[in-house]
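Need tokens for this chain, all 164 residues.
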Amino acid sequence: MHLPDSLRASLKKPMGLLIQNSDVTKENILRVMSKDVFLITVGDATTEKMIKIGLTPSLQIVDSLEKRNKRNLPTGKTRTTLECVNPAAEITDESIAIIKRAFQEDIPVRIIVDGEEDLLVLPVALHAPENSVIMYGQPNEGLVIVKVTEEIRNKATKIMNSMS
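Here are the structure tokens for all 164 residues:
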């Protein structure tokens, strides 16, 4: 599935609550989510930030890039590592299959993406278990926290159905 140019502007708006970079602390995050959620991070910097403040994501989706620059993978304990190919501005069938599989594996799970992981927030929102929270970075602004609800699932479905 390819992202059409017509959707790019709408996807730049946060899907959930935006916490400014200067306000991203464990205390502020735990104010908006409980400790027992299934925490999913999309992005290397977001994953690394959560691990550093003592919140180990159950599912971590990373690509060794930050703002298109090569970087080391976040450190942190994982029990399962999966890999997939997902080019920029796309969501591949392989990525969707790996995301579905990740929810069946021993946590914490890390998916290492060859390509770009940004759009994988959409299939994650669609397939995440109940009581899940997705976090991803909003470039130069902060951290977006998305509680997976029926409304979010519907929005993700609508966007993915608009992709060709």
